[in-house]
Every structure is written in structure tokens, then in C-alpha cells.
Design a protein that fits this description.
The structure is a single chain. This protein is of the alpha/beta class. The protein has 14 helices and twelve strands. A four-stranded parallel beta sheet has the order 3-4-5-6, with helices on both faces. α1 (2-8) packs across α14, α2 (51-66) runs parallel beside α3 and α7 crosses α12. It is globular and about 65 Å long. 40% of the residues are buried. The mean pLDDT is 91.
């Protein structure tokens, strides 16, 4: 969304309604936009997770949107926020563009949520998609799924996914650490199950290497218990960090760890973590579903294996050897070049901005 705002700001009056960041985290606002931040309920880790916390932002948002002038409303996920924007769009006749990032119904189903919860989520997501003048998808696979659950195929437009190559750059300084490490950044959930990496690490008893986790998610408590049990002292949890700090830890890693559990409805995902690692030139170790693995293989970005701890451990050994003999550093420029050519947030933001402008032009033609 930041890239979209930056692309729209030079020729549009852009107002961003968002949340106040967690305590201690500094966020740099996009230049040229007016940013209004509101308080929101967060858990102990600083994350916004669960319907009550979502609604602590969404309910006030309804009135903030209702009494604010705008030609176009662009709503991000979760679907509850999309629902608020869709209702305001319905009441006021304003154009709605939905930018969900992921297919939330599939994510909820993958977590084995109760059927009524899945049904409600699907109904909400379908309503938002039907109401939207356009929906922005991060990949062709996501676009296809959004069309299947309610979006008009001709209105669902894939713009790709990307990373801020100004922040995620090979020039960022790596942290000073005594022990080489793999790094996992972002969400830790049922559909990623990053425990596979901890189990793999436990097989590497002959190598002094650690894993560092940054982010949050529903399975984090279980990961901590497992790490203490089978790899004590070798797994570290750093909580939520800003993009610049995340980039630094990625830059210094042996490899970035990325996973998608196959067969639970999320096989189409292309995680942003892959692009972030490539942008700083660090190899990716991907475990799981075929789509994400193919991105790594086709781009020459690292190693892609099945969702199996033994296979992951074998790939870790190979990546450690490449890091030790300098191969990782020699291949860094090629990975960075791939990221600039294929996953630049500037390019993605420009594409998304054209979707928003097109929806606005369409509404004006309809009004004549």
C-alpha cells in the first residue's frame, strides 16, 4: 500500500487512514500524502490479531470514512476493513478498490477454523469483491481465486508483488554477530508452520548455526516451546521489527527461511519474504508448496525443497557451505538484479495506481 500511495501522491490528494504503530516502532510516512493514525488494540507482541482487535479499528473507521470526502476508497485487508469500506461505498456512491494481498477465506480455512466462521468470512469477502469497482491482486493465482469467490474476473487485476528496494538493499549494514544464522521474518501461522526449520536445525548438531525469528503469529508460542526442547539456545525470537532492521538481519544471514504448507489451500502463495531476501542478495531456503518454490528455482534465488525437516536440513548444510566458501557473496549481485527487475515496489505501485485511476475514470464516465 505504501508503494501505491507514493505512486498516487504526485497528482492526487491522498489521505491515508491507518493505525498508530506499536510502541517503539518508527514508521516513515510516504511523502506527499496526509496520514491520519488512530489507536488500535494490540496483543502483547504488538500485533493486531483477532476480530475484536480488527473491529477496534474498523468500527471508528466507518464514521471516519462516512464523513470524509473522497472520489475513491482503497481498502486493504482484513475483510472486516473491506466490509466497512464497501458499506460506506454503498451508502455514499463512492468508488471502492479492494487491495486484499491474500485470499483471507483460504487462510482461515487452512487454520481449520469452524465452518460457520469460514462461511461468514467467505460471505464478507465475496460481498466486498462484488461491491468493488476493481480488486488488486498480487499474483495471477490470487487473482484467479478472488474471481472464484465473488470478484468479477474483468475487474480483478494482477499487479504483482514487490519489495521496497531502497530499504531492502545489499548496501544495508549487516548486524555484528558471533554465530552464523538463518533468519525468518514475518508471520508465523498455521499455513506456514515454520517449525519445520527448527526441526531441521536440530539435525545440524555438527554445525554451530542459529535461527533468528522476527515477527509474530499464532504459532509463535508453540515454536518457542519446540525450540527450547530440541534446539536449546540456538533459536532466538526478536519480535516485531521495522523494515530497516529486518533488511539488516536479512543482509547478514546465511539464508532467509520461507515456508508454505502444501495441500491446505494456500499453494498459490508467493511470499513477500522471498522478494525481500533477493533484494538484499541473500539466498532463500524455501520449503513447501510448488508455486513459491518455482519462484526461487526460476529466479536462481536459492534452494527450494519439500516440506520435510530432513530435506530442509540437507539444504541448510549446502547453504552453509556456500556461505563459508564465498559463493553466497559472489552470487549476491545476480539475486539483487533479479529483484530490481522482477519485484520492485515502484513498478508494482505504479501498476496499482493505474488500477485506481482507471476505477476513478470509469466512475466519472458512468456519472455522465
Amino acid at each position: 500500500m505504501d508503494a501505491l500511495v507514493r505512486a498516487l501522491a504526485p497528482d492526487s490528494d491522498v489521505v491515508v487512514l491507518t493505525t498508530k504503530p506499536p510502541r517503539g516502532m518508527t514508521i516513515t510516512d510516504a511523502p506527499g500524502a496526509t496520514v491520519r493514525r488512530a489507536p488500535v488494540l494490540r496483543d502483547r507482541t504488538g500485533a493486531i490479531r483477532g476480530y475484536v482487535q480488527y473491529l477496534s479499528f474498523d468500527i471508528p473507521l466507518f464514521f471516519r470514512l462516512l464523513f470524509r470526502r473522497a472520489d475513491v476508497i482503497v481498502a486493504e485487508a482484513p475483510p472486516t476493513t473491506g466490509l466497512v469500506a464497501a458499506l460506506v461505498s454503498l451508502l455514499t456512491g463512492r468508488v471502492l478498490v479492494y487491495y486484499p494481498g491474500d485470499v483471507w477465506t483460504d487462510a482461515v480455512a487452512s487454520m481449520e477454523a469452524p465452518r460457520p466462521v469460514i462461511a461468514v468470512m467467505r460471505a464478507v469477502e465475496s460481498f466486498v469483491l462484488r461491491r468493488a469497482a476493481s480488486a488488486v491482486a498480487v499474483s495471477p493465482e490470487v487473482a484467479e481465486r478472488l474471481a472464484e469467490i465473488g470478484g468479477h474476473p474483468e475487474r480483478v487485476i494482477s499487479v504483482g508483488n514487490g519489495i521496497d528496494t531502497d530499504v531492502f538493499s545489499p548496501d544495508v549494514p549487516a548486524p555484528s554477530v558471533d554465530v552464523p544464522y538463518f533468519v525468518y521474518t514475518g508471520t508465523m501461522s498455521e499455513w506456514q508452520q515454520p517449525e519445520v526449520f527448527i526441526r531441521a536445525l536440530a539435525e545440524l548438531s555438527e554445525v554451530d548455526v542459529h535461527i533468528r525469528f522476527f515477527g509474530q503469529g499464532s504459532v509463535e508460542p508453540e515454536l518457542k516451546v519446540l525450540a527450547e526442547k530440541i534446539a536449546p539456545g540456538r533459536v532466538h525470537f526478536g519480535g516485531l521489527v521495522g523494515p530497516a532492521e529486518s533488511a539488516s538481519w536479512l543482509r547478514g544471514a546465511v539464508a532467509a527461511l520461507v515456508s508454505i504448507v502444501p495441500g491446505i489451500g494456500y499453494d498459490f502463495a508467493r511470499p513477500t519474504k522471498t522478494y525481500a531476501a533477493a533484494a538484499v542478495g541473500t539466498p532463500v531456503l524455501f520449503a513447501g508448496a510448488e508455486t513459491g518454490g518455482e519462484v526461487v528455482r526460476s529466479g536462481g534465488l536459492g534452494e527450494a525443497v519439500g516440506f520435510d525437516a530432513h530435506d530442509v536440513a540437507s539444504a541448510m548444510r549446502g547453504l552453509i557451505a556456500e556461505w563459508a566458501d564465498g559463493s553466497t557473496e559472489r552470487a549476491r549481485p545476480a539475486r539483487v538484479a533479479w529483484a530490481v527487475d522482477n519485484a520492485s515496489l515502484r513498478t508494482v505501485g505504479a501498476r496499482a495506481a493505474e488500477v485506481v485511476r482507471g476505477a476513478r475514470r470509469g466512475s466519472r464516465r458512468s456519472a455522465k
